[in-house]
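Async update (no meeting this week)

Hi team, since we skipped the sync, here's where things stand on the single-chain job. The sequence we agreed to prioritize is pasted below, unchanged from the tracker. I ran it this morning and attached the output directly underneath so nobody has to dig for it. Comments welcome in thread, and please keep replies under the output.
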Amino acid sequence: MSAFGAIADSLESAVDFQFAEDGLYSDGINPALEVRVIIDRSVEQRDAFETTMPSHRDQIEIRKSYVARPRRGHTVVVGTTTWVFDGLISDDGVVTRHYVNGSQS
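Output:
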């Protein structure tokens, strides 16, 4: 492994350790998978709902090594909150970011 690759892996591990949370991913059909996710709460979203007023949405990041293609309606349970995937924001080939809606169990 190159020096850059080793540093990148080290940084990735540090980010995961600091910010990621354990969860259970479910597509509603197959057995749930253990995953690590980063949840960003109340992220400002501009130009939502055809208005210039900002709104706030919760977002979740999940590595493609856990789930290659998370879909709308799939869920991740973290603690007592069930996060329902509501739409893809980005996919950089390694991590996908999604809008999510949370509800307490």
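Quick observations from my side:
The beta strands are 21-26, 33-45, 55-63, 75-78, 81-91, 95-104.
Residues 21-104 form one domain.
Reply here if anything looks off.
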